[in-house]
Amino acid sequence: MVKAQVRQGMLSAIKRHFAALGYSEASQSNSLPKVGDALFFEGKNEVVCVKILGPEAFLDRNTFMRAVLDAGILLDYCNRLFLAVPLLLLPSVDADTLRAHGMGLIGAGEEELVVAQDAPRREPKPSLAQGINLDDETLRLLEKVPILEARVRELEATVAELRIALSQLRGQFEGLSTKVDRLASLPTVQEQPSHSSRAEATGASSPAAAASVQEPPQELPSFLQDNPWVEILSKRGEE
Q1: What sign results for the dihedral spanned by CA atoms 55, 61, 64, 66?
Q2: Which of 18-22, 36-40, 107-111, 175-179 shows the lowest mean pLDDT across its residues?
Q3: Positive or negative CA dihedral for 130, 131, 133, 138?
Q4: How many Å apart are CA 232 and CA 121, to the nearest integer?
Q5: Domains identified in the chain and CATH numbers
Q6: What count of Cα atoms within 13 Å lies in the side-chain half-sphere of residue 8?
Q7: Beta strand 80-86 with 104-108: parallel, antiparallel or unpaired?
């Protein structure tokens, strides 16, 4: 109920404003698209279109931008295009964005209307200005063109970000590859033999040293110990 009252108040204020400027409301014909919440006015050798945006278009920035892009199709049917928003929401509208899209801005209430930004004059496309008959399906498809164009721009931005990320990954991979090549070019460190293996090698390579080691003297049998004949016989061998 509130939305309907707001919309009706905006419609009345807009019609009064353009009537005071010498414009008359254009009759719906085949040359003008049947777009909801859009008013066309004729006068002063031009056609002015006013697209009304209700409070529901201000839920978030994406919703608002989608409404702006949807309204862009009307530029092909008029010389000037205004977006009309509730007067209380006028301060929250980015006028520069509308200017970039060739649109003016109106804030409308039940009793008051403010033209916050005038719309630049432009010439509509000749083929459309001549009044080519378009069926409803064609009009619906044309209305989707701005949305598709915006989606394409989003995808292009995503692709650009992916290319940057891929370039960074390629640089990191090349850096790691360089480090691996550098490590592979270093000389191999040989393992030094331990003390035990060194001793074994020394013993195996020096048989003379092993032979020079004298074995401990063997003890005499018990029946020869303290036998005087052993000493006598040993002296005979020395003579």
Answers
A1: negative
A2: 36-40
A3: positive
A4: 149
A5: 2-153 (3.40.1350)
A6: 5
A7: parallel
